[in-house]
Amino acid sequence: MADQYARTPAGAGPPMLPSIRWDEPPEGPVLVLLDQTRLPAEETELVCTDVPALVRAIRALAVRGAPLLGIAGAYGVALAAVRGFDVEDAAERLAGARPTAVNLGYGVRRALDAYRVAVDKGADPERAGAAALAEARRLHREDAEASAQMAAFGLTLLDELLPGGGHRILTHCNTGALVSGGEGTAFAVALSAHRAGRLRRLWVDETRPLLQGARLTAYEAARNGMAYTLLTDNAAGSLFAAGEVDAVLIGADRIAADGSVANKVGSYPLAVLARYHHVPFVVVAPTTTIDLGTPDGASIEVEQRPGQEVTELTAPRTAVAGVEAGGGMPVAPLGTQAFNPAFDVTPPELVTAIVTEYGALSPVTGDGIAELCVRSRQG
Ligand code: MRU
After folding, report:
1. What is the pLDDT of residue 166?
2. d(C-alpha 28, C-alpha 22), whole Å
3. From the CB of 342, is ligand 1 less than 6 Å away?
4. Most C-beta atoms within 10 A of its C-beta, which of 41, 45, 76, 163?
5. SS3 assignment for 234-266
6. Ligand 1 centroid, distance to 164 Cα (angstroms)
């Protein structure tokens, strides 16, 4: 079951409501999400009391972005455990809610493993639930720490790549506090450049069809007082041609063992443009986004979303409220088929560097990716 509460008008200036939080009102534990389908018009929290509600929220993009999906998945397992639902079934449903962001399955597995270990040691359901929740909280904290480290490494890299300062950065989709336990991935780097007085402009791709750039990144940039300009995705080429982009910074949903990067659809064309115009194309992602089990880009499953998201002008709605995507203003003749992949894949040779919480990898090679994973396992 899900409910909505705590409405506040959206406006300039932090703090924003947390993108995710665990709460324990008298009626029982709940997972509270900042409903990203309602932004930027209003900050509304969505309260999930069970896993089906959370799965609907994930599919409707009320909660989204790779690192946050991992955190949500872990809390979802904890929710099932502490509320006495079937934990194995809940984990399976959560992990399958969206296919591309590897963090979702990773977060689910972390909490599930903690739960299973506790059960194997003879813990009663309450203590096993507490173990799953503690693991979700740990992942949440780790993600915040990784975010701060990526921001620092990313800014150092930018300063090296662009010694003149006054960075003009193009970004795609949304990669800020809305997707993270901290300040995000690519956006966190831009934010640290802003705080250091070295961000001249953040170019924000609107990110068709669900407008994560226009609705969410512009929202976060405005709240942080950053100099930003919104553009249609199609306008990026003109911007490169005019010499107005110094670097591209994006996040990732899955990084394959060979360094191929799946991210929001529209990222790959930016990488091609960046290469043609000799502009660095930098991916910022925690090592939890690396999937050594996926050998290459062709093996990454790309989520296909409903065609209505393209044939109608609409923001994603909360399926929780019983309204699936669609129901917007038609922009194509009735019955038009649409191709609507949520992500695309950029080959490693087009990626200048991948910035993780362990530093920047450049050039991007399979060996380098494997080494990063070894370092992340060593902690
Ligand atoms: O479909 P979404 O909005 O979940 O897609 C999110 C993205 O593509 C982000 O760029 C990606 O998850 C990286 S966020 C750190």
Report:
1. 85
2. 11
3. yes
4. 76
5. HHHHHHHHCCCCCEEEECCCEEECCCCEEEECC
6. 30
Ligand 1 center to 252 CA (angstroms):
7
Q: Does residue 212's CB lie within 6 angstroms of at least one atom of ligand 1?
A: yes
* Rounded distance from Cα 249 to ligand 1 centre (Å): 13
Edge-to-edge strand list for the sheet holding 42-48: 2-9, 42-48, 30-34, 20-23
Q: What CA–CA distance (Å, rounded) separates 333 from 330?
A: 7
Q: Which two tokens stand for residue 106?
A: 């990773």
pLDDT tens column, 283-336? 999 999 999 999 999 999 999 999 999 999 875 654 444 445 556 889 999 999
User: Among candidates 14, 42, 9, 10, which has minimal Cα distance to 224?
Assistant: 14
- The dihedral through the CA atoms of 151, 375, 294, 116 has a sign that is negative
Q: Which two tokens stand for residue 59?
A: 């599919």
Sign of the Cα torsion 24, 25, 29, 33 reads: negative
Cβ–ligand 1 contact at 209 (below 6 Å): no
pLDDT > 70: percent of the chain = 93
Residue 115's alpha-carbon distances to 12, 73, 111, 200, 379, in angstroms, are 41, 14, 6, 47, 22
The yes-or-no answer on residue 246 being catalytic is no
What amino acid occupies position 307? G
Note the ipTM here: 0.98
Residue 322 burial by Cβ neighbours in a 10 Å radius (0-12, 13-18, 19+): exposed
DSSP-derived letter for residue 50 is S
The rounded distance, in Å, linking the Cα atoms of 183 and 150 is 10
The one catalytic residue among 35, 143, 253, 291: 253
The rounded Cα 129 to chain-centroid distance in angstroms is 26
